[in-house]
Amino acid sequence: MHNLFSAHPYSTTVGILTERATDSGQCSEDWSLILEICDVINETDSGPKEAVRAIRKRLNSSAGRDNVSIWYTLLLLDACVKNCGRRFHSQIANKDFLHDFLKLLAPKNEPSQELQNRVLYMLKCWVELNWNVPGKKDLEKVYTTLRQKGIQFPQSPPGSFVRNTILNSFTTASERAMRTSPSETSNAPSGTYGSKHGKLFK
Predict the structure, then answer these.
(1) What SMART domains does the entry give (predicted)?
(2) CA pseudo-torsion sign 145, 147, 149, 153
(3) Threshold 0.90, pTM exceeds
């Protein structure tokens, strides 16, 4: 019997597709591949769980290391939320997934303002969709807690996923790293989220 928890997240059909769709080596997002992933999720019993495991794997492995891959992953996640149903939403409204999702904003990952806005806006939209899923209260609790801590959620959609912008940020970061010695590098990012609320992440 196939064991979801022993297999590598990228070893399943939807996992293989997810790895490809979130690969930073792409010239641009592959919408045909993204929609194929949505179809697999909707048409198979294990699709939702396997897809979210693969997405979590990419988020954890790329956070703070590969911003292009992170943006492709968020694009895929957004498409899945919009095109897949309750079974997928149940995997999103889950403490473990939400923990990994919000770790993108951890200070050590130095999230850009654009990334912070995208993550927070997605979370806000999930709450407003009022999903009828078991983890609904967990999702609402995370949202409420962040607001109580002073987090400002975007009221309108952030800018579109623009790969050139991400690549430009990579160039800037690389140049800064070359000019700055390790002893001069600050441990606290300038982002308004991370600098004030890093204690949310362990």
Answers:
(1) VHS
(2) positive
(3) no
